[in-house]
Amino acid sequence: MKQLNYQVLRESGYQGYVLEHAPVKVLQFGEGNFLRAFVDYWFDCSNESTGWNGKVAIVQPIAQGLSGIVNEQEGLYTLYLRGSENGETVDRKRVISAVDACYNAYDPSDWEKVKAIAKSPELEYVASNTTEAGITYDPESTPDQVPPHSFPAKLTVLLNERFKAGLGGLVILSCELIDDNGKELQKCCNRHAEDWGLGEEFVKWLNEECLFCSTLVDRIVPGRIRDEAEVRKLNEENGYVDKLLDVGEVFGVWYIEGPRWLEEKLPFKEAGLNVHVVPEVAPYKKRKVRILNGAHTGFVLGAYLAGQDIVRDCMHNETIHSFMNKLLYDEVIPCLPLDKQDCMDFAAAVTDRFNNPFVDHLLMSISLNSTSKWKARNMPSFLEYIEKYGKLPQALTMSLAAYIAFYSTGMLRRENDALVCVRPKGNEYRVQDVDWALDFFWDHRNADDAALVHDVLSNLQMWDQDLTAIPGLEETVLKDLTKIRTEGAEAAYASVL
To answer: Into which CATH architecture does domain 283-495 fall?
Structure first.
């Protein structure tokens, strides 16, 4: 079979939407699976629904990447969005044609082409996902490097080229997984402008004409299909070989922090897509952390001790699923400063996401670093519930007991990077966390549960406060832990329903 390109796609008989030629309106840093299943997907849908008529030029931000394959396929790739919606299995295929080309910034001729795109009157947006380490200030980056080392330095050079060409500013959409990603990127660009002496007029243009948007992205993108037999089957069905085949979950939402006019400028609202311009991203990040991530950390440790191995199976266990729902609907959502119906809709979508028939999400993967995860994801809801209602939240308190049980059940040995325990099912499992947390539980291997609970709750390094000061907590956690030890985690979960 031939490799995918426009001619091969026509020969394959593909009947979906395709846009072969359009001006470049987006300059994107990053060619990985996530951006192609998320940002490029939204723009592709906008082309079809609204006639936005724009293409994405991708910049490969590091020396090694996919630019060669992207250009071989003329920017085309097949995206599968898979999962569960309203309890129904979904498997959607779409050939994405929004990408124009990919440029290797470390090739001098390609870097010149990227500069030319930056000076194009048609260009409107910059999008990026250069990993959490991408938005950092690098004093070793200079404007004469081909290209400058860091992403913020590259962007500063390109924005300066546009400024010198007398063109208007751009909207920058940062997708990196750090707080205030847009604001942090803007700070880095300002530091480079100052260090390089680019002048007050450019700095004024940078901060007044350009709009640096912090954004919150939410879509699980496994990316690769690891089963080679399935890949061959899909290629045969499609009638072409696709070396960029991408897979994401059906659910996706993008929150963009910006002024009202931006929602009208972006094509997403008109296209009816799940992309929203909001005054602040922070409340939506809180919703995601408290509900999606908080649900994971809240139920998986006890679920693993109860004999479960993957998230999807937990959604088919009535007790565990009901425990998760109690935790979310009775204890987390009532304490969130957001529209309650919106939060409940998000929580309902979480159940669909956890029930994804295409993703075997291992509980042990979620269990990594559960000490810091419980503190960040669950403890704020736990404390706010107590403050609001003057009593302990039953499910969140039980999840804290399950955390202690997971880290201390059948402890066998301390290894370099793990604490090896044995669950009631009989198999060994590896608790992985920071060294001091693992050392703490190993040092308590001979302590009785009363002493263990007291020392966990009073550990300032774990929680930044002494949780034994909360009335009734120590006694309740000990009671819950005893129930997990004697009756099993599933029965313990059932006891709070």
So the answer is: Orthogonal Bundle (1.10)
